[in-house]
């Protein structure tokens, strides 16, 4: 007698083997994921360079006031950089996750939703 397994592997779909193929924007999401990974690695690399420069400058500070000014400048620059990259990455992610035409705009609400609307307004 043949044993059955409770879970069977999903069929492979080519390049999108991790489930994005069935989504409306599957290919766009894959491209966005690749871009986000590249953006993340570029950002980390840039921040490490900036941090390294700051540490070199900190070692050459002559007094605590210069060190405090350097730290303040570094914090402002880091905050700006993190804000910019976060905004850029979120914009890319939302653009990839949003279908070109929202299905809600093309379908009518269900009968139960239409029936509940007047009751909600009252």
UniProtKB/TrEMBL annotation:
Region called Disordered, residue ranges: 1-21, 97-122
Domain of life: Bacteria
Protein name in the entry: Phasin domain-containing protein
Organism whose genome encodes this protein: Neoroseomonas oryzicola
């Amino acid at each position: 007698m043949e044993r059955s397994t409770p879970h069977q592997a999903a069929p492979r779909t080519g390049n999108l083997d991790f489930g994005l193929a069935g989504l409306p924007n599957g290919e766009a999401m894959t491209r966005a994921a690749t871009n986000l990974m590249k953006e993340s690695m570029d950002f980390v690399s840039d921040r490490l360079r900036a941090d390294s420069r700051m540490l070199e400058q900190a070692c050459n500070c002559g007094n605590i006031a210069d060190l405090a000014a350097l730290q303040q400048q570094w914090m402002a620059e880091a905050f700006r950089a993190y804000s910019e990259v976060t905004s850029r990455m979120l914009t890319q992610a939302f653009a990839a996750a949003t279908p070109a035409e929202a299905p809600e705009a093309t379908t009518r609400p269900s009968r139960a939703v239409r029936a509940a609307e007047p009751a909600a307004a009252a």
